[in-house]
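Design a sequence for this backbone.
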């Protein structure tokens, strides 16, 4: 808002202090440029909420101190735009009176909360009231909200109150009536018949009458105040310009006033008479007049050039006087001025104003440094102004010695008041001095822009201060004040903190925001301090407010603008006799009550020189008078004068408007009335359009108001802002209390906080009714679902009963079928036993007979037949035993014998197998003999299966140990890491026999331990197994041990040897992922030790020995580096079963040379070492199987050309496909015929010969080109790479096999074997042939001689070249050239 503000200090004759009583006036002007709808102001009113209303020629205006809001006929439905009068009824409705139209006045009732209007005629169904063209007509509202109007002719008094309604009181005694004033007693003063001033009650009774038969009566503008109801003037005639002025008090008494108070009568001037106080002073709109003192205050000189014609007048509740004119509204406040001004420039010319930097009072003289003007003095009445010093910019001013002043400039100036002389003392470090204080007997301590100085008291010499100690930052800071507290401690206020200094020790402490413990204060820049009688420090800070510091208790409290201060930049703090603190700041002077913690501020409106004061420009005289220097002189005052001051005005905080989008109406709706009356706001979910406007009704510097709001229950802190509005959006669901407070520019807080209940509605799906509905629906659904489930359950029960019945019948039928099947199986096994045993008896008998013959070859075949027939008989016996055990038909017959001796005998039968495999088989027993009850056949089966299993999985060089031990009772083996498959339940406290079989094989995967005793279970990929198994051996062991009521357990042996040293072994992982090393498996069979059976007859005989196959391998001696062809093709046989290997050797005898490898890894090594012509391999083998062998050899350049035939018992199609994908050339399934084997091997050799012919041509570069879409084999790539490496070096005579091996990255033997197998050519033969092939091409070139061709292909001797060429092609080089020329 743009406002012209005039600050008037009426000092009656001079701009300095006078002895007369002073008044200060503040004037602000508002016009259309500030938001008024028109410059002509006809009526002014302050409503009950505190808003100011202005009736103009073009609409109604509401003013909240910051902005005007206009209401017009067009926008708000008023009946007219020109407002002549405004009154407020008890309901808060504004009654608006329009202009005189054809002798009538229109009236409109306006609701300020909704902005809507209704005409008088429409509301009350009455006609408009008549009005006089000469006297006009007015309308007034009493304090209780009664509206009074008058019908001019016939004379009728009209009143209205919302409770009593509209009343018409005819006054027959009068011809016409015009009311001019209403009292607090609900009476009206009116002019009747033009010559009578009468007081009437609401019912028409006459209380007072003042008759003036001659001339006219004019009721002057004004409002009741100070016991006066109004003033009026009686004019004797139209030419009478003075008239007689009367005062009417609240009791209706009239008193004539002296002529000195009268104002002249003009055609366009309505006099204003307002009782300023009860002393008789009257405000006339621009002057304050006194009966005895005349004019005390006059604004006309300050309003020069502005036309003031009074149209209306209003004094509001806060003492502001509002004057409506034809050129806007004037806001005037006149107060008693307790402030005195020195060196003050009353005009608004900035260049003439004097900024004060230093102040000192000596006796009855006031001294001041006027910035850029020098040192001045005057007496304490403001007279006898004298300029003392002119040179330089002056800052600090100190009365350091009697009769002398210290002035801080670029140098330190010492001014002698008595002699009017000066001396200069230069500053050693530059800068300027701002403050000084006694420091010791010899020095003053001075401070300024760059730290501290010492000033000698006698000579005035300035010395640098050096004892900063651990506070060097002070040397570069700005020191603003140095003073002592009540204990004599000297304190320094600087921009880097608050310091203490000692004359002998220097700087001793620093208090600042970075301090720890007792040295911490909330601010860093301090400008002044005061210590009260209780020892509390009051610290004036730069932009951190006022700090109350209890140094002893190390507590402080900060007072800022949010706590009521007018400004946070405090320059000085002084106390008066009441203990109130007086503060100068960047915005006025503040009086702070340290008990109530309240602040009252004073600005230029209250008579001070300027709102902004200066640092170090302050002093308190010995009599308590305070002097504060600012940007326009010095403000002086005596604090006791303010003890009779009136309390500060109250500032209401009101709701201006509340707008909310209505979804039903699809528009923004004004809901101000609803919120004002209910103090309640309801927000829909997701509402982002609701805006609440409010205003602190402060009519002085309202643009500097500050507001704060807090949602109680949601916010912990207040939110401060300058905008008088809040957008209510994004609030969470729930109820909150919205608190709003305001603060004026002078720090005064709003008289009360706005408290509004804000309810953020939940979405319909979160409201109680919806939740209850959902609950009922849920309960109903659950009940219905329960009923349905019960019905379904009944139906399901019936169905299940039917199914159970059918299943029972089916089970009974299946039980009968199983019983018959079991009987059939038993008969089948008995028949198979008979059928198998009969041919096996013949086979074994004939094999035994053949074994007696003398032919070695025949005996070898007979042994092979006998051994495999015995294995088949043992397998049949095991199957039959399992069948009997399942059927419960196997009986056990115990006999007493030496168990240790029997176990030893059984183990001896496996020594031959262990010796053949290279495994050490050892028997251990602490007991030499142990007589016990056992069944020899069953125990032999148990031991045989365990030993066969151990030997199968133990590699060459390993060890198998079987031992017998006697225990005094049963001991569980679970704690030792065993998996206990069978745990006995009886005989636990009796002696037990423990038979242990352990090996040094790879062990058993932990996940497989519980399954190895399952029937037909076989481990996948047994890496060290020497042959496959049937999966029934260990299952039979479990059944036999269970039959003998014993215990069975297994574990992996720990990876430690007998000496506690760590051994390498198979790495397994347990169920928790922990790594375990195994050194083989260990089986434990526990049998109860009893001696109740009858003794066995005779000695225990050892079972027949089991002899392994002993094939006589005729290993050929092959010289693979020789160029002579091998007589028979070499076949590498990779087979782990000795008998199968012997049989294949017999089949291939005479046609092939056979090399044997017992597993896949040995087979790979032998293939790389010997490069055989064919490889015949089994699939299931230890270490590496046949698939891995294929994969390795086919991807190795040295062996990729060798045909591989897989021979195995795995006959599934997927196994064949897997082998062919790994690179196998052929696949044969066991059992096979020798003829089939021979044909397959012969075909592979024939294919190899054809490939040799192709590869030899490819190596020499004479083969047909390979189609682009044909895949290139590894052999093709090898030969092409060999040729591409050799061709560039054919002209080198030194090129030999060693150089070629280096280029190919292989050994001589490997390259030779590879080339021989692929092409049938040795490397020497290949190299010579390649040279000759290139020579043929070169001979076709006529430019080359025979010698040059020989050199180009690496022949140094042309004659040798010719001889070799002729041997190769049957033509000499020259003959070849001649033939090809033709």
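Sequence:
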């Amino acid at each position: 808002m743009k406002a012209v503000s005039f600050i008037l200090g009426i000092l009656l004759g001079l701009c300095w202090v006078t002895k007369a009583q002073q008044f200060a006036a503040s004037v602000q002007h508002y016009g259309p440029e500030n938001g008024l709808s028109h410059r002509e102001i006809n009526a002014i009113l302050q409503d009950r909420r505190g808003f100011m209303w202005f009736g103009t020629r073009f609409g109604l205006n509401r003013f909240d101190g910051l902005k005007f809001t206009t209401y017009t006929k067009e926008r708000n439905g008023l009946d007219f735009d020109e407002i002549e009068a405004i009154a407020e009824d008890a309901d808060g409705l504004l009654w608006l009176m329009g202009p005189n139209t054809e002798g009538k006045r229109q009236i409109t009732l306006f609701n300020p909360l909704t902005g809507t209007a209704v005409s008088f005629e429409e509301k009350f169904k009455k006609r408009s009231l008549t009005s006089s063209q000469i006297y006009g007509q007015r309308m007034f509202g009493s304090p209780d909200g009664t509206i009074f109007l008058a019908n001019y002719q016939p004379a009728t008094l009209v009143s209205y109150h919302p409770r009593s309604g509209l009343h018409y009181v005819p006054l027959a005694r009068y011809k016409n009536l015009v009311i001019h004033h209403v009292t607090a007693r609900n009476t009206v003063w009116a002019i009747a018949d033009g010559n009578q001033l009468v007081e009437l009650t609401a019912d028409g009774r006459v209380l007072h009458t003042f008759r003036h038969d001659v001339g006219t009566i004019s009721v002057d503008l004004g409002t009741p105040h100070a016991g006066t109801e109004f003033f009026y003037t009686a004019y004797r005639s139209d030419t009478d310009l003075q008239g007689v002025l009367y005062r009417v008090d609240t009791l209706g008494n009239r008193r004539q006033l002296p002529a000195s108070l009268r104002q002249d009568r003009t055609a366009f001037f309505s006099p204003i008479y307002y009782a300023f106080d009860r002393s008789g002073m009257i405000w006339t709109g621009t002057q304050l007049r006194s009966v005895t003192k005349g004019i005390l205050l006059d604004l006309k000189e300050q309003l020069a050039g502005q036309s003031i014609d009074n149209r209306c007048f209003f004094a509001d509740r806060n003492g502001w006087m509002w004057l409506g004119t034809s050129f806007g509204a004037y806001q005037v406040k006149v107060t008693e001025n307790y402030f005195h001004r020195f060196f003050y420039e009353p005009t608004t010319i900035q260049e003439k104003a004097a900024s004060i930097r230093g102040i000192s009072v000596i006796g009855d003289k006031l001294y001041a440094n006027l910035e850029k003007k020098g040192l001045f003095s005057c007496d304490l009445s403001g007279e006898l102004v004298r300029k003392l010093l002119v040179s330089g910019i002056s800052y600090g001013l100190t009365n350091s010695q009697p009769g002398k002043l210290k002035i801080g400039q670029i140098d330190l100036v010492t001014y002698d008041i008595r002699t009017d002389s000066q001396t200069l003392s230069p500053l050693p470090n530059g800068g300027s001095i701002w403050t000084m204080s006694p420091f010791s007997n010899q020095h003053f301590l001075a401070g300024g822009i760059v730290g501290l100085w010492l000033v000698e008291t006698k000579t005035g010499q300035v010395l640098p201060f050096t004892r900063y100690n651990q506070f060097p930052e002070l040397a570069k800071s700005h020191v603003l004040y140095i003073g002592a507290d009540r204990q004599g401690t000297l304190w320094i206020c600087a921009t880097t903190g608050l310091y203490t200094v000692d004359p002998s020790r220097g700087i001793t402490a620093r208090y600042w925001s970075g301090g720890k413990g007792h040295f911490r204060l909330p601010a860093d820049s301090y400008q002044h301090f005061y210590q009260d009688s209780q020892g509390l420090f009051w610290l004036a800070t730069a932009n951190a407010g006022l700090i109350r510091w209890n140094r002893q208790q190390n507590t402080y409290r900060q007072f800022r603008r949010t706590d009521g201060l007018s400004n946070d930049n405090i320059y000085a703090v002084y106390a008066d006799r009441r203990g109130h603190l007086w503060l100068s700041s960047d915005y006025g002077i503040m009086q702070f009550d340290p008990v109530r913690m309240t602040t009252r501020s004073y600005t230029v409106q209250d008579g001070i020189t300027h709102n902004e004061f200066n640092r170090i420009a302050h002093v308190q005289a010995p009599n308590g008078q305070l002097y504060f220097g600012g940007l326009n002189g010095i403000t002086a005052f005596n604090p006791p004068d303010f003890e009779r001051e009136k309390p500060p005005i109250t500032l209401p905080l009101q709701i201006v408007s509340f707008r909310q989008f209505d979804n039903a109406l699809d528009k923004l709706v004004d809901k101000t009335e609803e919120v004002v009356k209910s103090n309640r706001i309801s927000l829909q979910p997701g509402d982002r359009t609701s805006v609440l406007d409010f205003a602190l009704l402060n009519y002085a510097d309202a643009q500097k108001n500050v507001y704060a709001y807090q949602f109680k229950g949601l916010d912990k802190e207040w939110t401060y802002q300058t905008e008088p509005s809040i957008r209510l959006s994004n609030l969470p669901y729930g109820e909150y209390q919205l608190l709003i407070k305001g603060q004026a520019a002078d720090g005064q807080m709003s008289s009360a906080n706005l408290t509004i209940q804000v309810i953020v509605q939940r979405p319909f799906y979160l409201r109680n009714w919806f939740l209850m509905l959902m609950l009922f629906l849920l309960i109903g659904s659950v009940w219905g679902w329960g009923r349905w489930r019960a019905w379904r359950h009944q139906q399901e029960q019936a169905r299940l009963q039917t199914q159970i019945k059918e299943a029972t019948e089916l089970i009974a039928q299946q039980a009968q079928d199983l019983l018959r099947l079991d009987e059939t199986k038993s008969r089948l096994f008995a028949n198979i036993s008979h059928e198998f045993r009969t041919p096996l008896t013949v086979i074994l008998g004939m094999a035994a007979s053949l074994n007696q013959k003398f032919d070695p070859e025949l005996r070898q075949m007979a042994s092979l037949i006998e051994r495999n027939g015995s294995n088949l008989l043992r397998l049949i016996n095991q199957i039959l035993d399992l069948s009997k055990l399942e059927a419960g038909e196997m009986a056990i017959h115990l006999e007493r014998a030496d168990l240790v001796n029997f176990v030893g005998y059984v183990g001896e039968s496996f020594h031959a197998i262990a010796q053949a495999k290279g495994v050490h088989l050892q028997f251990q027993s602490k007991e030499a003999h142990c007589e016990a009850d056992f069944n020899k056949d069953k125990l032999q089966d148990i031991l045989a299966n365990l030993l066969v299993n151990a030997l199968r999985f133990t590699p060459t060089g390993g060890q198998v140990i079987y031992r017998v031990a006697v225990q005094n009772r049963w001991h569980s083996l679970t704690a030792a890491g065993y998996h206990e498959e069978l745990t006995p339940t009886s005989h636990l406290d009796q002696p037990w026999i423990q038979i242990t079989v352990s090996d040094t094989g790879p062990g058993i995967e932990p996940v497989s331990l519980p399954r190895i005793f399952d029937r037909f279970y076989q481990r996948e990929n047994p890496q060290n197994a020497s042959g496959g198994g049937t999966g029934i051996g260990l299952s039979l062991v479990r059944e036999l041990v269970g039959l003998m009521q014993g215990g069975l357990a297994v574990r992996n042996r720990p990876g430690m040897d007998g000496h506690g040293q760590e051994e390498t072994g198979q790495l397994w992982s347990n169920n928790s992922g922990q790594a375990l090393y195994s050194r083989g498996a260990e089986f434990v069979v526990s049998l109860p030790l009893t001696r109740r059976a009858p003794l066995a007859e005779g000695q225990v005989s050892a079972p027949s020995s089991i002899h392994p196959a002993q094939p006589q391998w005729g290993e050929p001696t092959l010289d693979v580096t020789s160029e002579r062809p091998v007589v028979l093709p070499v076949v590498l046989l990779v087979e782990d079963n000795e008998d199968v290997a012997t049989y294949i050797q017999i089949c291939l005898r005479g046609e092939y040379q056979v090399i044997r490898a017992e597993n896949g890894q040995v087979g790979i090594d032998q293939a790389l070492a010997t490069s055989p012509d064919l490889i015949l391999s089994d699939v299931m083998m230890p270490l590496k199987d046949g698939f891995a062998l294929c994969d390795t050899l086919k991807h190795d350049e040295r062996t990729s050309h060798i045909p591989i035939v897989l021979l195995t018992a795995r006959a599934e199609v997927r196994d064949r496909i897997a082998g062919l994908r790994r690179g196998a050339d052929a696949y044969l399934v066991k059992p096979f015929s020798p003829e089939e084997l021979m044909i397959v091997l012969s075909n592979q050799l024939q294919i190899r010969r054809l490939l040799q012919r192709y590869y030899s041509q490819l190596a020499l570069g004479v083969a047909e080109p390979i189609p682009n879409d044909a895949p290139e084999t590894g052999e093709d790539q090898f030969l092409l790479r060999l040729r591409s490496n050799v061709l560039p070096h054919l002209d080198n005579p030194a090129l030999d096999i060693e150089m070629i091996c280096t280029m190919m990255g292989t050994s001589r033997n490997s390259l030779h074997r590879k080339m021989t197998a692929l092409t049938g050519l040795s490397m020497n033969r290949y190299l010579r042939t390649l040279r000759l092939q290139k020579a043929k091409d070169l001979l076709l070139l006529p430019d080359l001689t025979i010698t040059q061709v020989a050199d180009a292909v690496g022949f140094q001797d042309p004659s040798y070249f010719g001889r070799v060429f002729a041997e190769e092609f049957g033509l000499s080089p020259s003959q070849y050239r001649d033939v090809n020329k033709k």
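The radius of gyration is 64 Å.
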